[in-house]
Structure formats: structure tokens, C-alpha cells
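Quick one: C-alpha cells for this chain, please?
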Amino acid sequence: QVQLVESGGGLVQTGGSLRLSCKVSGRSISSEKMAWFRRPPGKELELVATITWNSAETIYTESVAGRFMISRDNTENTLYLQMNMLKPEDTAVYYCNQHPVRTWNWGQGAQVTVSS
């Protein structure tokens, strides 16, 4: 069974930075396209960024482009999200998963709170 464990969230001020990690166990991610998602308070889940299996292509939702960077370490079976210039509207629970999501269960997520 695949397990996803997100970490690195926290409370930061506007303009601050955080780095999220997603450790995957139970299956190698080396051939998987991966993604970060987020669920803002009271809103639906949204796609934040995707990365191909070999890191050749990354895609970002418009609201985070130029501020966030998705990366991966296939040898460590880990996905990362570097978040810079954080804004209050980035406040959300952040999740990782394969993309598109198929059979992997969701992790508990990482809470990111940006204060104004």
C-alpha cells in the first residue's frame, strides 16, 4: 500500500518561505508524474504544480508561477515544493500525489498558514 507523508508546513509571515517534502513509501515514484495540490479553507482542492518523472517538465498554476518550485529526488522517493514570497492566499493544506490521481490514497497533508 502506498503511503504519502507530507511535512514542512507551518506559520509564516507574508513574504516568507517554506519547503514542503512528500515522502512516498510502498512504491517507487521514479516512473510517476507527480503533483502538489492544496485545499484552501472552505474551498475545493486545487492543483498547484506538476513534474514529470525525469523532472524535464514542470507546470504551475498561474497564482504560484514564479514563486513556487516543484522538484523531486527519485533516489529518495521524495517530492518537494519550495515556496517563496508567500501570500495570505497561499494558506491551505498541501498534499502530494501522482498525477493524474489514480489509486494512491491521500496523505494527511501539510498545513501552511501565511499571516498578513
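The mean pLDDT is 97.
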